Amino acid sequence: MVHLDHMRSWGIVLLLLYLFNQTAAQPNRFFFRKLTVANGLNDGSILAIAQDSRGFMWFSTKAGLNRFDGKSVKTYSFTPGDPASLPTSLSRCMSADSSGGFLIGLGDGMLEYDTAGDCFIPVKALADTWVTAIVPFNKNTVYLGTGKGLGTYNPVTKTVSFFNRQKDSLSPKSIYQIGRSGIYAYIVGNTGVIRLNSTTGQLEKIHFPLPGTARITAVAIDGSRNYWLATRNPNRLLKFSADCTTRTDYSQYIESGNNTITNFSAMIADRNGRIWVATQLNGLLLYNPQTDLFDPLLHNPLQAWTPSTNLHSTLYCDSDGRMWVGGNNGINYFNPDKTFFHILPVFNKDPDTRNRRVARVAVEDKNGRIWMGTIDGLVRYDPKTEQYKEWNNRDGRPPAIHFNSIRGILCDADNNIWIATGHGINQYRQDKGKMIFYTAKDSIPEIFYFSADKDRNGNLWFSSRDEDGFYYYNPQNKKFHSIRSVPGLNLFAGEGGRKLFQDSKGRYWLGFNGSGLGMYDPATEKHRRWKASAEPGSIAGNAVVDIKEDQMGTIWVSTFTGLSVIDPITFRVTNYNHTNGLINNSVGPLAIDEKNRVWIGTSGGLMLLDSSHTYFTAFGLQQGLPSVDFPEHAASILNNGEILMPTQNGFIRFAAAGFKKENRPLTPFFTTFDISGNRQEQQLNNPILLKQDENFFTIGFAAVNYDNPEGTWYAYRLDGIDEDWKYTRNRFADYTKIPGGNYTFRLKASTDRDQWEQPEQLLRIHIDTPFYKAGWFRPLLLLLLIAAIVAFYRYRIRQREKLLALQGKAQLLKKEKAMVMYESLKQQLNPHFLFNSLTSLSGLIDTDRKTANSFLEQMSRIYRYILKNRDSELVTLREELAFVQTYVQLQKTRFKEGLQVTVAVAEEDYSRRIAPVTLQNLTENAIKHNIIDQDAPLCITFSTENGYLVVKNNLQKKHVVETSNKQGLASLQALYAYLSNKPLIIDESAKTFCIYIPLI
C-alpha cells in the first residue's frame, strides 16, 4: 500500500492554484435549477432526499415533508389536534421500497405512505425506534439501519426482524449509512464497513488501513470499483483501490481550517460512477479522473446557472441520472448528462459593473477564439485556456476602440476582426496585434453603426442609422464605399439601416431602423418594399433586427414587434406574434439549424419552430437559459455548427442538431378533485361518488417531468360529455352541470403534442341522478301523463254526456213548456171563439138561415184545421193563411166592414213554415185589444219581409180588455225561441202595432 499523505502540502498548493483559476473562469457545464421556499417548500433546510416509485421527489425538512412533481410542491407537516397529520419527529432517511411503497424513517419510528389516502401509516413494529437508513433490495426485503442495529422490513407482511449481534459480532450497533452495489449492501457503522450478501445473508468486514482513530461515516464506490471514504477524527476524504491496497487523500477539499469541525456533508456515486461530494463551505465537488482533482461547483450570485448556495447537506441521484443537492436554502437539481445550453459569460470579472453581463454580438475566428461585442468594449475569449482579453476605453488611457458600445462584429477572410461601434469602424489585425481606426478620411464616417455583415462577394457591410445608412468595404480595392455607389441599391440610400443580408439567389435584403424592409434583385433589377400596417401582405414590424434564409430559400425577418416569413417565389408574408405562437412579440436573434428548424430569441425566452412551421417549443430559465431576455442583435453560427446567441446575461451556445423533441413516456396521475362550493378536496378514491348537487367539479392532474414541466402536454376527455380529446398544458379540467350517471375521465400525458401512444389513466366518477332525471322516471311520467289524459278524456266525455243529457232535458223541458203554452193558446180558441161564434150563429138562424149554414160550415172548417194540426209543430204559410182567412170571414159576420184584413205575401214565401194557429191568435189578439167600428175599421195586414211574416194593424186600443191574461204574446215568443234562431219581434208605435214572425 502506498501512502500519499506526505504530498498533502503540494495538493493544497495545487488546489489553491486550481481554485484561483476556477474563480476567474469557472466551467459552466451544468445548469442548476432551484427549488426554494418561494416555490412552496415547507422550509429550506433539507435533511433527506428520495424518489418514490411514481417518480415524485420527496424532501425532508425541519418542518415536515415536501413532495415535488416538477411543477409544484405539496407539503406535509404536523397539525395539532389532527392524529392523521405527520409526526413532529425529523426524518433523515427516506426510500421507495421494492413493492411500490414509500418509507420515511423518523427519530422514533417509520412511516409508510398511503397513496390512495394521501396519508402516512406508522409501522407498528418500529414504534419508538430510531431509523437511520432505508435501502430496498427486493419485494420482500428492505434493509434498515436503526437504533437497535441492522434490521429487515417486509413491506408485504409489515414485519420487522433484527440481526442478532450476539451471534454475529460483525453486525454494527450504530449504523450511519447503508449503500447498495449489485447484490451487496454496504453498511457503515461503528464496526466499520460491513458488506452484506443479500442472497446468503452473510456479513463480511472490509478492512481499510485508516489513519489514527479515524471512524468511517460514509462510503461510495465509483465506476472503477474504487472505494471512497469519509471519516471523522480526523476528518478525511480518501480513495482506496478495489483491493484496498492503494490510498489517495483528498482531505484538502473538505478541510474547514478547524479539524474538529467537519466540512463534509455527503458523498455518492451517480449511476455513471462519478463521485460527488457535498460540503458545507466549499460547495459541490465533482471528481475529475483526468486531472485527479475535484472540480468545485460554486455559487456565484451574478450567474443564475450556478448553485444557490455553497452549504450543502445531502445528495441524491434519481432514476434518470439527475442530481439533487439539498442545502440550507432548498434544492438544486440538474442532469449532468443532459446539459443542452452552455453559457458563456461576456466578461470574467466585474460583470455587474457598467452592465457587463449584457451580451450583444459575437463571431468565432479561424483559431476557434470567440470575439464578443459588448456594451463595454471588445472581448476575446479562448475556450481552450478559458482566458479573456478586453479592449475598452477608460479615462486617462489612449482609446482602445472607437467606442465601447459595440453592435456589429465579423471575421474576414484574413482572420481579421471588424468591429462596428457606436462611433465608427475598427479593424483588429490579428497577425500584427494592432487595432486600426477608420475615419472620414477613409470614406467611412464616424457615426453610429448597428451591424457588420458580409455579402456573397466578400464585401463587408456596415449598417448605420445615420447619413447614407449603409456602407461597405471592398477587400479587393481595400476601400470603403457608400450604398449610393451601387446601382440598384442606391435607391435605399439615406434610410437608417440596421441589417443587410444577401440570400442564395443574390438578392439583397435590407432591414431599416423604423421604415421596414427592402429587397433588391440584381438579376431582374427589381425592388420591393414591406412595412408594418393593417394592410394584407405587410410585415410584423418596421424596426428590423435580424435576417436569415432557411434551406428552402425562405426569408425570416425579426423585428421589435414580431416575426415575418417571406416566401422567396410569391413573396407572400406570414407573420408570427403572441396571438399565434410567440411568447413575446419582441424578436431578436435568429438561427436556422441543419434540420431547417428556426431558433428564435425573444424578450420572453428562446423558441424553436419546427420545420413544418407548425409547432413552437419554448425554453426558459428552467431549461438552462441564463436569461429569458434576448436583445435586438443577431445570432451567429460557430465553426462546429453550434449556434451562439446573445442574452441579457451572457451568451448561450448549443448544438441545435443534437436537440430533438423527446417523446418520453409520461405517466400522469390525479392530484386533486375539487367540488365547486366545497372547500375541502374530495378524497381521490376510484370511483369518486358524488351527490346530485355536486356536479360542478375540477379535476387536477400532473405528470412527473423535471426537465421541462412547462412543456408537458395533457390530453383528456370525459366520456359521455366530451366529444373528442382536449389537448392542453393546463393541469386542471373544469366541468359544470354534469347530469347524473356514471362517467370515465381519461387522461394521457406527453412531451410531444403530436405523440399520444402513452397509456391512459382512468378516473371513474358516479353522480347521483335526481329521481326526476332517472331513466325510469320518464317512462313512468309518460305513463302517468297518458293515464291522466285518458282519465281526463273520460271525465270530459262523462261531463259532456251529462251536459248533453241536461241540455236535452232542458230542450225537452223548454219544448214541453213552449208546447204547453202553445196548447194553452190553442185551447183559448175554444171558449172565446165558440162563445162568440155560437152567439152569432144564434142570431143568424133566426134571421138568415142560408148565412147561418155557411157560418156553421166555416166554423167546422176551423175546428177541423185545429184538430188536424194539433200534433204538428209547423204548417206551411199557405195553409195558415187559408185558415186565418176562414177565421176572418167568421169575424166579419160579426164586425162587417169594421174588420179589414189584407194579405200581401210574396209567392215564394208561401211554402215557408210557421206554427199552426199563429195568425189566428194574432188576429184574435188584435180584435181583442182594439176598437172595431165601420167608421174606424181595424185594418190587419199580412206581408213578408226579410224572412219574416209581418202582422201589422192600426192601433186604436180599447180602454178595457176583458178575458186577457197578458200571456199570449209571451207564450208565442217562447214557442218561436224554441222553433227558430230568429227572435219574434214586437214593434209598437203610437199608431201601429207590428209583430215579426220568423219564417222557418
Automatic annotation (TrEMBL):
<feature type="transmembrane region" description="Helical">
    <location>
        <begin position="776"/>
        <end position="795"/>
    </location>
</feature>
<keyword id="KW-0418">Kinase</keyword>
<dbReference type="InterPro" id="IPR010559">
    <property type="entry name" value="Sig_transdc_His_kin_internal"/>
</dbReference>
<keyword id="KW-1133">Transmembrane helix</keyword>
<dbReference type="Pfam" id="PF07494">
    <property type="entry name" value="Reg_prop"/>
</dbReference>
<feature type="domain" description="Two component regulator three Y">
    <location>
        <begin position="705"/>
        <end position="767"/>
    </location>
</feature>
<dbReference type="GO" id="GO:0016020">
    <property type="term" value="C:membrane"/>
</dbReference>
<dbReference type="Pfam" id="PF06580">
    <property type="entry name" value="His_kinase"/>
</dbReference>
<keyword id="KW-0812">Transmembrane</keyword>
<dbReference type="InterPro" id="IPR015943">
    <property type="entry name" value="WD40/YVTN_repeat-like_dom_sf"/>
</dbReference>
<protein>
    <submittedName>
        <fullName>Sensor histidine kinase, LytS/YehU family</fullName>
    </submittedName>
</protein>
<dbReference type="InterPro" id="IPR011123">
    <property type="entry name" value="Y_Y_Y"/>
</dbReference>
<dbReference type="GO" id="GO:0000155">
    <property type="term" value="F:phosphorelay sensor kinase activity"/>
</dbReference>
<dbReference type="InterPro" id="IPR013783">
    <property type="entry name" value="Ig-like_fold"/>
</dbReference>
<keyword id="KW-0597">Phosphoprotein</keyword>
<feature type="domain" description="Signal transduction histidine kinase internal region">
    <location>
        <begin position="822"/>
        <end position="897"/>
    </location>
</feature>
<dbReference type="InterPro" id="IPR011110">
    <property type="entry name" value="Reg_prop"/>
</dbReference>
<keyword id="KW-0472">Membrane</keyword>
<keyword id="KW-0808">Transferase</keyword>
<dbReference type="Pfam" id="PF07495">
    <property type="entry name" value="Y_Y_Y"/>
</dbReference>
